[in-house]
Amino acid sequence: MIWQRRIQQALEQRKAQHLWRQPHCLQGPQGVIVTRGERRLLNFCSNDYLGLAALGGDALQQAAQQWQFGSGASHLVCGHSQAHEELQRALAAHAGYPRAVLFSTGYMANLGVISALTQRGDTVWQDKLNHASLLDGAQLSRAQLKRYRHNDSDHLQQLLATTDGSGAHLIVSDSIFSMDGNCAELTQLANIAEQHQALLLIDDAHGFGVLGEHGEGARHAFSLSAQQLPLYMGTLGKALGGFGAFVACDHDMADYLTQFARSHIYTTAMPPALAAAMCVQLQRLQQGDLQKQLRTNIAYWRQLADQAGLPLMPSESAIQPLLVGSSERALQLSAALSEQGFWVTAIRPPTVPQHSARLRITLSAAHSHEQIAELVSCLQPLWEQCS
Ligand SMILES: *Cc1c(COP(=O)(O)O)cnc(C)c1O
User: Fold this and answer.
1) What is the extent of the structural domain holding 148?
2) How far is ligand 1, taken at its centre, from the CA of residue 352, in Å?
């Protein structure tokens, strides 16, 4: 009875607060044009920033001829193959680090790294808007979690100055914030970390593959050294259009994570064919054309949206949200867009703070200027009606 009541109450409350979520089913591959149920929609909400999700299939098929399907075990038992080894080496080289350690997902990488490194008496310092997986990683560790105001390195500096000096400090931030699209003050964070002998972990889920001329990521874009940014997490599910994640670091750190990161150790290694296909995806994005195309699209969107009077947020990234506030209104806008053939998800609490529901519009290198212009002309009257 107690469980039934609890579950029913929680479900009813979700619906009443316009926070109910459900997956929509795609009938074909991910891409700029997708088939959802009976309808074809122009997609403006995926994290497939370079359009690579629809391109890896050939590489996967080819790799499957050599590697077949499953890895059979975790990395440390007998599931680690030459394909994994090569992917780790390629990722480390591209991000500019001596080593990289693979994880099944970014969520697991963040849990694994934070919980492996920190112990009771330590403090994990996190930006208020950090991704859920980073916050969960700190919850899982025995360290104390402290959050500083969003993108306010002065606040972090003040808070650190008041600590008593016992225990180690880990500073953690998204590079590009996933629901806002703005960029963290990485140079300041690196300086603060150095000053307080803190370790710095940067989650570059939305920057790896996108930032830097050839998609080297946030470290490169900010001209920071690998010593200044010693723990770099990147994911393979966004700009690389696949699945998986890695942490790039120096040799000792990689050895340490291999020994102690439980979400790396106690889980099946990704299928080796997937690892091999990810290497091909990485080569595709290293050309640099896709990043250039994406930057052109972002600038084009910002120009048109600004002319149309849409309230842009301070984001130079592919994430270009429109802040709505009310969850109900965000849902209505998303539904109205869908009626007209556009897919833009309404992002609501608890993914974002209370009263800050939004349309999280994302751009891809695969969008044409025409498609971007169509979105703006459809949005403009809808936005005026609702504001
Ligand atoms: C998507 C995301 C993750 C999780 O990565 P997955 O590989 O999808 O599990 C972690 N951090 C940030 C900032 C993200 O946006």
Assistant:
1) 58-285
2) 15
Residue 178 assigned to a binding site: yes
To test ligand 1's pocket by mutation, which of 103, 107, 172, 202 has the most ligand atoms within 8 angstroms of CB? 107
- The C-alpha atoms of residue 124 and residue 171 are separated, in whole angstroms, by 6
User: H or E segment at 267?
Assistant: none
75 annotated to a ligand binding site: no
Tokens of 273: 């064919």
Q: Is 345 in the pocket of ligand 1 (CB under 6 A)?
A: no
- The CATH number for 38's domain is 3.90.1150.10
Q: What is the dihedral of CA 75, 77, 82, 84, to 10 degrees?
A: -10
Whether the predicted model's global pTM rises above the 0.85 cut: yes
Domain boundary (258, 285, 312) is at: 285
Tokens of 179: 């629901």
Q: What angle do CA 215, 220, 222 make, to 5 degrees?
A: 120
Work out which ligand 1 atom sits closest to the CA atom of 131. 13
Same domain? 138 vs 256: yes
- Give pLDDT tens digits for 263-321: 999 999 999 999 999 999 999 999 999 999 999 999 999 999 999 999 999 999 999 99
